[in-house]
Write a structure and sequence with these properties.
The complex is a heterodimer of chains A (317) and B (668). With 317 residues, chain A is mainly α. Helix content of chain A is 73%, strand content 1%. Chain A has one domain. Chain B is built from 25 helices and 5 strands. In chain B, helix 2 packs antiparallel against helix 3, helix 13 packs antiparallel against helix 15 and helix 13 runs antiparallel to helix 16. Classes of the chains: A mainly alpha (317), B mainly alpha (668).
Chain lengths: 317, 668
């Protein structure tokens, strides 16, 4: 049993790596359709990664060894964070290694190295991207943790697996606090994964870049790892949102039928969420950097309302 | 006699000896480097051994020295609490003992007084050791003043610099106002307890009102020494002024001695805790943490930045202590223990990584004579050892897993998340808000240390003397290496550390965390495995394993070799070092978003030759809000009182007589 669980946990971790480009491809496809374009094929993201891995890797003369280590650290830390989030089944052993606060910490570790790598070559764009990324992260993190605390206080646990378990055990209960926390987490996810309206993953317009500015100097396999890590991060936030707020379908026993159902459920949920994201990116425009604090304050306010709603309405009721 | 006490006495003796040996160092400079500082390090080793003995041994040992007042000999006591802080002091002192001999070589040819440096360092250490060993208020105050005065002389070490003199005076003033508050707090306890030894004070029957008076006095006095907002203004002035290894001692250790004093007086001597105090401590702690990190982010002077970041970390420690007060006051001893252990854990973590960072700043200062971040850049290439150890310090202080700062902040979060146990709805919602402030603090701290590391160690050198920096000597590197290993150990083995720290709450609350260490050294589960778990060794293992795999693949030649080229930079001309983001530029978005909290003077001036000059000055709001009004009030009061000063002796005698009569009337 224990060995099966570990094997399954490793399979789930590999699934995160394998599925991440697909979600990005899906979002791009839907977005293109909404804009009356045909768009790149669904598997284009995989082809891009393959192409980048095959290309020669160039590193600036002025780069230090940290620049070359950073893509690996960023990729591994993001992947480790993803391992702790239940994708197919709850109560896998990897979920106990890290609770949600550790997940946030691991993402912060990845971001720390990403920002340092941006500053390493000594170009103005890299520093600009690092400075802006750290500002956005600093404003997003309290909102994220407040939203998560609302869940954690309902479930009396910060282990995501226990949170999902508690949510499933409670059945379909409409909790106002959850709605606010969901709103907050959606806004935070947009900011953290660098989507419109906070950052535009498709832009190379120099003065508006954030994430792209930091990885500007990367090429070849380094760039591939950085891109892949960003894709895993998007998938991670997607799974966090769909599996924590709408956990139905996730496998609670490690049986093949349950796992198959869990996989189908999470894919359907992610496809829907990806479509919502594409619609959002189509109707919204990217905002100026100094409008982002207001956007994230809204997230913080929603999270606060969720928390107060939980404390006032739901505790003891 | 108890083994721990003998070791502690040995530590005291060695510290005093180190002080005495340095006296002739003016003539023979090698005495300081060759004898006094090794003795200093040995004192640290003895203190560490004494502390660990006390932590593992369990029972308290006491001794009475035939010194002091006729009716009040000096009482010493070594229990788990003082053992923990002895260990903390000792570990950093050992590292300083290894680091400082190379560092002080730079002073040997200067005009600075070596006997003053060695002598006061030894006395400073003696004072700190005695504070944590004292078992009566009299010895405590003597040791406290010894610590304050010795450190005053160390702050004033570069006394030919006017800014150092000003910082030292401000420090002296604040230390004495704080000392006065502590003295009055002991006065309240002693008058109810009927004696100045701590045994009597513990038994003092206190009403809520008087206990609160004692609490407020202790919180103000110790909070001033610990650098809590708004009493922190002296700290960023004083800590950077001293030589770097003393800055490490002051930021890493002396602030923790203030934390010790607070714990001893409030948790041990007052004993009966009230949740209202917890609310006050949580509020002040969160505000200190947030403002400390925001001000740190705005600094361009590396040592000043590190000093402001100490305000932040002490704020986090007090946040944990406040949670412990609150939980204990509302009858949840298990949760109080969790918050208390988190606070102690963060205290020792901060001692380790802040000393490490100050050592790094000292190595840069030693190699380049530069403290201004905007002049640095690319130091990782010229000082690789310092660069790597500074990176470990930055990762630890930025609270990133699996380093040590994260482990203690994680436990603080876990304690805050247990707020649902409380009955009061207001408290239940206030505590998560303070946890969110802690999250903001952590994220801003990460931004701050990205800035420090990115500007100082990465990129290209912004000035010529940085490019020509010379590497630190072996001793300094060993001192840094010891702290790097300790930072890693404390981050990777949180369960073991918590198991040792538990001796302190066992003594104070009679409570441990039964679940925390029950699942083996790999799993840290503070309340229960279902509630939260964190496996730092596993995370580190996977990280290192996969990184090693990538490295191995590139070594085997399976990956294509990288080719060096000019930076791409969107196709612009190759950038010059002047085009890089500076420390000021990095902080600009934060300065704009949090602008209301700073006093910003910004403008463009036209020079005489017609060129333009951009001027920016960001200063601490605490000055105008808190200090300037008090200074004005004091001056105003002085102007009133001066009217009494007529110069006529008969009128003075009249006043004396009236005062005496009033006092007699009050007493009778």
């Amino acid at each position: 049993m224990n060995a099966t669980a570990w094997l399954l946990a490793i399979a789930q971790a590999l699934l995160y790596v394998a599925l991440a480009p697909l979600l990005v491809g899906w979002v791009r496809k839907v977005k293109a359709r909404l804009q009356n374009r045909r768009g790149p094929p669904l598997l284009q993201a995989y082809r891009d990664l393959y192409k980048l891995f095959g290309k020669e890797t160039r590193v600036a003369h002025t780069a230090s060894p940290l620049f070359r280590a950073a893509p690996y650290v960023v990729f591994i830390a993001t992947w480790l964070a993803a391992m702790a989030i239940p994708l197919l089944a709850v109560d896998l052993p990897t979920a106990a290694i890290a609770d949600i606060i550790v997940v946030v910490g691991l993402l912060a570790l990845a971001r720390f190295f990403l920002a340092l790598a941006g500053m390493d070559v000594g170009t103005a764009f890299g520093g600009m991207g690092a400075s802006r990324e750290m500002l956005i992260a600093a404003l997003a993190e309290p909102a994220m943790l407040m939203a998560v605390f609302t869940l954690a206080m309902t479930a009396h646990s910060t282990n995501l697996s226990s949170v999902v378990d508690a949510h499933l055990a409670a059945g379909l209960v409409l909790r106002p606090s959850y709605l606010f926390a969901l709103g907050a987490l959606l806004l935070v996810a947009l900011a953290e994964t660098g989507r419109i309206p906070v950052d535009n993953p498709a832009t190379h317009l120099e003065l508006t870049m954030v994430h792209e500015a930091m990885i500007l100097e990367y090429s070849g396999r380094h760039l591939a790892l950085m891109e892949w890590a960003a894709q895993i991060k998007l998938l991670l936030y997607g799974v966090l949102i769909v599996n924590v707020f709408l956990p139905w379908g996730i496998a609670r026993e490690l049986l093949p039928a349950d796992l198959g159902l869990g996989f189908a459920a999470v894919v359907v949920k992610l496809l829907l969420l990806g479509a919502v994201l594409a619609v959002g990116e189509t109707v919204l425009a990217k905002m100026r950097l100094f409008r982002v604090p207001a956007f994230l304050n809204l997230a913080l306010l929603l999270a606060l309302l969720g928390l107060l709603g939980h404390v006032i309405l739901e505790v003891g009721a | 006699m108890h083994a721990g006490l003998i070791l502690a006495a040995l530590a005291l003796g060695l510290a005093l000896a180190s002080s005495l040996v340095s006296l002739p160092a003016g003539r023979r400079p090698w005495l300081l480097r060759g004898v006094a500082l090794p003795l200093f390090g040995l004192a640290g080793a003895a203190a560490t051994a004494a502390g660990i003995t006390a932590l593992l041994g369990g029972d308290a040992a006491t001794a009475v020295l035939p010194l002091g007042l006729p009716w009040l000999p000096w009482h010493l006591r070594l229990d788990a609490l003082s053992g923990f802080f002895l260990t903390l002091i000792g570990v950093v002192t050992v590292a300083v003992g290894l680091y400082a001999p190379s560092y002080v070589r730079g002073f040997e040819n200067g005009r600075d007084s070596l006997p003053a440096l060695g002598g006061f360092s030894g006395l400073f250490l003696t004072g700190m050791l005695l504070v944590v060993l004292a078992d009566d208020a009299f010895l405590f105050m003597v040791a406290w003043e010894l610590m304050s005065l010795a450190s005053y002389f160390l702050v004033a070490f570069h006394h030919d610099n006017a800014a150092s003199r000003r910082a030292a005076f401000l420090y002296l003033l604040m230390a004495h106002i704080g000392g006065l508050c502590i003295l009055l707090g002991f006065g309240v306890l002693a008058s109810f307890g009927g004696g100045f030894d701590f045994e009597a004070m513990r038994a003092a029957p206190l009403s809520f009102g008087w206990a609160s008076v004692a609490f407020v006095l202790a919180f103000t006095g110790f909070g001033m020494k610990a650098g809590l907002v708004p009493l922190h203004a002296w700290l960023p002035e004083a800590h950077p002024a001293a030589p770097s290894h003393i800055s490490a001692m002051m930021s890493g250790v002396m602030l923790k001695v203030a934390v010790y004093g607070f714990i001893r007086v409030v948790f041990d001597l007052i004993g009966e805790l009230h949740w209202q105090w917890g609310v006050a401590v949580i509020a002040i702690g969160s505000v200190s943490a947030l403002l400390g990190v925001l001000y740190a982010l705005m600094q361009n002077d590396l040592k000043r930045l590190l000093a402001y970041s100490s305000v932040e970390n002490v704020g986090i420690v007090f946040l944990g202590l406040g949670l412990a007060l609150l939980f204990q006051g509302s009858g949840h001893p298990l949760l109080a223990t969790l918050a208390f252990v988190a606070a102690l854990y963060h205290a020792i973590n901060h001692a380790l990584f802040k000393s490490l960072l100050f050592f790094g700043a000292g190595a840069i200062l030693h190699g380049t004579h530069e403290r201004d971040l905007d002049q640095m850049g690319g130091l990782l290439r010229v000082m690789p050892w310092t660069g790597v150890s500074f990176l470990v310090g930055c990762l630890s202080i930025a609270a990133l897993p699996p380093f040590n700062g994260f482990a203690s902040e994680w436990m603080t979060f876990q304690a805050a998340l247990q707020a649902w146990h409380l009955e009061s709805g207001v408290l239940r919602s206030l505590i998560p808000i303070s946890a969110a402030m802690l999250a903001l603090t952590g994220a801003l701290g990460a931004a701050c240390f990205v800035k420090v590391y990115g500007v100082a160690f990465l990129g290209q050198a912004r000035s010529r003397h940085i490019r020509g920096a010379h590497r630190p000597p072996v001793g300094m590197r060993v001192g840094q290496g010891v702290l790097v290993l300790l930072c890693l150990a404390f981050g990777l083995l949180p369960t073991t550390v918590v198991g040792v720290i538990e001796a302190v709450p066992r003594q104070l609350f009679g409570q441990v965390l039964p679940q925390a260490t029950a699942h083996g050294w790999m799993w840290l589960t503070p309340i229960a495995p279902q509630t939260a778990s964190y496996a730092a060794p596993l995370i580190a293992f996977v990280l290192v394993l996969l990184l090693g795999l990538a490295f191995w693949l590139s070594r085997l030649g399976l990956l294509r070799r990288v080719r060096r080229c000019d930076p791409w930079d969107c196709g612009n001309a190759p950038p010059t070092p002047r085009m890089q983001y500076t420390s000021t530029a990095f902080a600009q978005p934060m300065r704009r978003v949090f602008g209301l909290l700073f006093r910003i003077e910004e403008g463009v001036e036209t020079q005489k030759d017609g060129s333009l000059r951009y001027r920016l000055n960001v200063s601490d709001r605490a000055w105008e809000i808190f200090y300037v009004p008090i200074a004005r009030a004091v001056e105003l009061a002085a102007a009133r009182i001066v009217r009494l000063q007529s110069g006529n002796v008969r009128i003075y005698l009249g006043w004396t007589l009236v005062t005496l009569l009033v006092l007699l009337w009050i007493i009778s």
